[in-house]
Specification:
Elements (H helix, E strand, L loop, with lengths): L2 E6 L11 E8 L5 E7 L7 E5 L8 E7 L9 E3 L4 E6 L2 E5 L4 E8 L4 E9 L5 E7 L2 E2 L6 E7 L3 E6 L11 E4 L7 E9 L2 E11 L1
Parallel strand pairs: 12-17
Antiparallel strand pairs: 1-2, 2-3, 4-5, 5-8, 6-9, 7-8, 9-10, 11-13, 13-15, 14-16, 16-17
């Protein structure tokens, strides 16, 4: 016998639902037919999320995609400005080295989703100050040294005779001290202000 097939009922459906369709087989000899209803595979809507932000330069965030594909494969992540490392079939780690706001997106064959925006913060200046020696006899001086990171200028705000000249690192001698002193340096940069202090004891 011979048979031919024809379909009816449509095979498209909203994403996340199960499409159904009817298959009818007809016999060219007997003229009879048989029909059956089939169900397709439900493909859930594609979603994506980002975790780990905000971050400092050099830090990383994770993006995880869910749905949008029948077999768990075929995710294509886009993260302009970042260094992408695949951690699984549906997730990536993205490292950013420069301050700013960045976008992460994902696509499958026929769906796309925005995972989220990532903020890479401009770091606050870190400051360190020290005194050598930290204890002096009456009428003697101490050498005050300082250093900083992510700063554009530093200022001495406390301590007899202490001056930075605006430099972000260096050393300077104190006055001859007759009382114990606290020496403080304040540094500023694009990310804000940082400071540090050190005490010099007069004995």
């Amino acid at each position: 016998s011979q048979s031919s097939g024809s379909g009816s009922g449509g095979v498209s459906a909203p994403k996340g639902s199960s499409p159904t369709f009817t298959v009818t087989l007809s016999s060219a000899i007997t003229g009879g037919s048989i029909s059956t209803t089939c169900s397709g595979i439900a493909i859930p809507p594609l979603t994506c999320s980002v975790s780990g932000g905000p971050i400092a330069p050099g830090g990383s965030v994770s993006a995880v995609a869910v749905g949008g594909t029948a077999d768990g494969y075929g995710y294509f992540f886009s993260a302009p400005g970042g260094n992408v490392t695949t951690t699984s079939n549906s997730s990536v780690s993205v490292q950013y080295n420069s301050p700013g706001t960045y976008s992460i997106d994902v696509q499958t064959v026929d769906q796309s989703a925005h995972c989220g925006d990532v903020t890479v913060e401009t770091p606050i200046p870190s400051v360190s100050i020290g005194a050598a020696p930290s204890s002096v006899e009456y009428g003697n001086s101490s050498n005050i040294s300082w250093s900083s990171q992510n700063a554009t200028s530093c200022t001495a705000t406390a301590g007899a005779g202490f001056s930075t000249g605006g430099g972000t690192s260096g050393s300077d001698g104190s006055d001859n001290l007759t009382t114990s002193e606290t020496f403080t340096v304040v540094c500023t940069g694009p990310g804000g202000t940082g400071s540090d202090s050190v005490d010099v004891l007069v004995t």
